[in-house]
Amino acid sequence: MNKKRNGKGTCAWQNGAKYVGEWKDNQFDGEGTFHIPTGETIEGTWVGGKLNGHGKYTLPSGELIEGEFVNDQPNGRVIQKRSDGVTFEGQYVTGKKCGQGEMKWPDGRRYEGEFKDDMMNGTGKLHGKDGSEYTGKGAGRIG
Hints:
Elements: E1 7-12, E2 18-24, E3 27-35, E4 41-47, E5 50-58, E6 64-70, E7 73-81, E8 87-93, E9 96-104, E10 110-116, E11 119-127, E12 133-140
Antiparallel strand pairs: 1-2, 2-3, 3-4, 4-5, 5-6, 6-7, 7-8, 8-9, 9-10, 10-11, 11-12
């Protein structure tokens, strides 16, 4: 007799974790939502126990990462909304901002251009909160 979870169902663990969704051979597989005891929620498409495809990761602070995931990491087009009001929309590669993207701050600053290893890196345009603009190459973090 096969005692593995298969099909749609819910599993709640003693530590407070809970998964509601589709299963295959005892692993999250298909559409589902995983609630973590620390308050995080991960929902989306699972393959072999990992988030693969469109997904949404929400933290208790309200921070959100939504977009494409590969093996539990953002990979592809992603929207990130931080709890401090900073937003990012652009490319991720293996869990880090990499490629083209746009970052906006609540005070009106905005950067559009290249990112590498989670930092602005390469050609881009920085719009200051006072309306100033800088276009060129650079690297680093801002806010």
